[in-house]
């Protein structure tokens, strides 16, 4: 009397019999499954790439915000420079004038003014034909 | 009429005011010149920073372009796979039964 050892045990799989139509449908489904698996893999890659793109866009936004910040500082500095350049300046005017359109009453005048954007302050001196010198303070506002 | 002394005093006062004004303007313009120089130096630094940032943006944009091209390729591949799937499914209909059996045999080899 002899016994089969474990390695000699033969286990037979269950056999499933499919009709031709069903077998073809199963093959079609398996083909679809294989392709879907590949598509899924590709779509995962696309998602990863989209994430990379999103990160890049966020970086661009951060950089643009930084540029805007720096540009604002630049504009502010330029404004400060303009304001400083437009500070009070010293102007000297010399001219001739007459009274009542009378050529015999000509006089030479001179204005020394500290000019700001709207207001000028300074002194004036007038030399008349008769040799008299008048002087005084001038304050004027720029209307237009 | 003013007396001679009063006139001299007025003239001196006026000259003093003018000189003080000129001194004030001179000091102010020197201070402003220094401040303007500082501001212009700061502006140079700011412009450099903006330029560097623009360069960084250009590099990132290149990366975005590369990634976009990659995505387009992947999308094209997905479209191609869908076409392949359609063709393969159609082929199954015209496959002989021995082919179907062979398919199962190949797929589930022991």
Mean pLDDT of chain A, nearest integer?
A: 86
**Percent in strands of chain A:** 25-35%
Q: Tell me the quaternary state.
A: heterodimer
Query: How many strands, what sense, and barrel or not for the largest sheet of chain B?
Result: none
Radius of gyration of chain A: 49 Å
Output the strand order for the largest sheet of chain A.
Answer: 1-2-3-4
Total number of β-strand segments of chain A? 4
Write the element-wise H/E pattern of chain B from the N-terminal end onward. Answer: HH
- Domain count of chain A: 2
Number of domain units of chain B: 1
Structural class based on helices, strands and sheet pairing of chain B? mainly alpha
Rg value of chain B: 44 Å
Strand fraction of chain B equals: under 5%
Could you write a compact summary of the structure shown?
By secondary structure, chain A is of the alpha+beta class. Chain A is built from one helix and four strands, in the order αββββ. The relative contact order of chain B is 0.03.
Can you walk me through this structure?
The complex is a heterodimer of chains A (144) and B (110). Chain A has one helix spanning 20-85; strands at residues 89-97, 107-115, 119-128, 133-141. Chain A is an alpha+beta fold and 144 residues long. Chain A folds into two domains: 17-86; 89-141, no CATH class. In chain A, a hairpin with a 3-residue loop joins β2 and β3. The longest helix of chain A is centred in the middle third of the chain and has 66 residues, at 20-85. Chain A is rod-shaped. Chain A starts with 19 loop residues before the first helix and ends with a strand. The model of chain A has no long low-confidence stretch (mean pLDDT 86). Chain B is rod-shaped, with a radius of gyration of 44 Å. Chain B has one domain (4-107). With 110 residues, chain B is mostly helical. Chains A and B meet through α1 of A and α1 and α2 of B.
């Amino acid at each position: 009397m002899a016994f089969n050892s474990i390695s000699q045990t033969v286990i037979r799989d269950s056999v499933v019999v499919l009709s031709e139509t069903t077998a073809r449908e199963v093959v079609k489904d398996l083909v679809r499954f294989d392709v879907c698996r590949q598509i899924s893999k590709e779509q995962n890659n696309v998602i990863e790439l989209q994430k990379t793109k999103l990160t890049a866009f966020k970086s661009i936004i951060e950089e643009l915000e930084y540029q805007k910040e720096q540009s604002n500082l630049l504009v502010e500095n330029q404004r400060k420079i303009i304001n400083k350049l437009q500070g009070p300046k010293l102007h000297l005017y010399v001219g001739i004038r007459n009274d009542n359109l009378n050529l015999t009453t000509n006089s030479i005048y001179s204005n020394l003014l500290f000019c700001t954007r709207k207001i000028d302050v300074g002194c004036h001196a007038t030399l008349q034909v008769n040799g008299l010198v008048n002087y005084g303070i001038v304050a004027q506002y720029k209307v237009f | 009429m003013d007396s001679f002394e009063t006139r001299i005093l007025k003239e001196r006062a006026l000259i003093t005011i003018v000189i003080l004004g000129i001194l004030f303007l001179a000091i102010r313009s020197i201070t402003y010149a220094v401040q303007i120089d500082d501001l212009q130096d700061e502006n140079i630094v700011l412009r450099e920073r903006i330029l560097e940032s623009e360069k960084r943006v250009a590099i990132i944009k290149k990366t975005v372009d590369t990634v976009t091209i990659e995505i387009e390729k992947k999308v094209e591949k997905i479209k191609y796979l869908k076409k392949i799937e359609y063709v393969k499914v159609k082929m199954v209909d015209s496959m002989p039964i021995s082919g179907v059996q062979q398919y199962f045999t190949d797929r589930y080899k022991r």
